[in-house]
Amino acid sequence: MMEEAAVTFTEVSKVYPGEVKALDRISLRIPRGEWVAVMGPSGSGKTTFLNLLDGLDRPTTGRVRLLGTDIAGLAPAEAAVFRRENIGLVFQQFYLIPYLTVLENVMLAQYFHSMVDEGQARGMLESVGMGYRASHLPSQLSGGEQQRACIARALVNDPGIILADEPTGNLDEANEEKVFEIFRELHRGGKTIIVVTHDRVLGNLAQRRIMLNHGRIAEDTYNGNGMGERITSIAT
After folding, report:
1. Is 123 domain-assigned?
2. What is the pTM for the complete model shown?
3. Which residues of the chain form beta strands (DSSP E)?
4. Residue among 206, 195, 236, 219 nearest 49 (CA)
5. Is 107 a member of any domain?
6. What is the rounded distance in angstroms from the CA atom of residue 224 to the CA atom of residue 99?
7. Coil, helix or strand at residue 48
8. Farthest-apart Cα atoms in the chain, separation
9. CATH number at residue 87
10. 127 with 118: CB under 8 angstroms?
11. CA geometry: angle at 55 spanning 96 and 184, to 5°?
């Protein structure tokens, strides 16, 4: 029996007022443990794709399943609980609470998960190279350090899926590489990672690259082990 996928889109379309079609009959399956980069030009449907994944939006038609759950079928309060317990979110803009220390920001995610463990939070900061900044405020961090703090916050509750929205968009090359290495390590550890990005380097590092164009999958490419690429599907 095939294992339940991390993500399944079945004939998913999203149409906004004015007949603006953001996604057009997308079907795909993302197995658990896969690292996927979702790419494409502005207006291709990437943001809508991400919003459907994290339950902030619902498809007009079709079905979105995460870890076996039809997230669009959940009431808003149920969707919030599901998101809190199963999804780790990494944002381009960081969204750290400015008056809380780095450690407290990570522990806040635990609080919303109904469990606070300072030792675990410190350990997660250590794992992303931020243990030495635990007592600092966000304003005392560089952009790269803030992003690593965000990743620690996203990981602290051991989510089944990590969703990252342009995680290197505000970083210089040196800090980009640190974030790349964290994602490499997460992938080696078996985490399911879905990254929406314009960054071609990050896209090429991912195990799989999905290109969207005009709301449809234009290309679905497996990078394999980095020894070559295989295009598995191209929309016509």
Report:
1. no
2. 0.87
3. 7-16, 20-30, 35-39, 61-66, 69-70, 87-90, 161-165, 192-196, 208-213, 216-222, 230-233
4. 195
5. no
6. 43
7. helix
8. 53
9. 3.40.50.300
10. no
11. 60
pLDDT tens-digit map of 139-174: 999 999 999 999 999 998 889 999 999 988 888 888
Q: Are 23 and 31 in contact (CB under 8 A)?
A: no
Q: What is the total count of domains within the chain?
A: 1
Q: For residues 168 and 197, is the Cβ–Cβ distance under 8 A? A: yes
Q: If you ran DSSP here, which 8-state letter would residue 15 be given?
A: E
**Contacts of 17 by beta carbon, 8 Å cutoff, 6+ apart:** none
Cβ-defined contacts of 176-180 (< 8 Å, 24+): 176/144, 176/201, 176/202, 178/129, 178/144, 178/148, 179/144, 179/147, 179/148, 179/151, 180/205
User: What's the Cα-to-Cα distance from 64 to each of 80, 123, 168, rounded to whole Å?
Assistant: 16, 34, 27
Give domain status of residue 127, yes or no.
no
Tell me the residue range of the domain where 80 lies.
7-95+160-233
- The answer to whether position 226 is within a domain reads yes
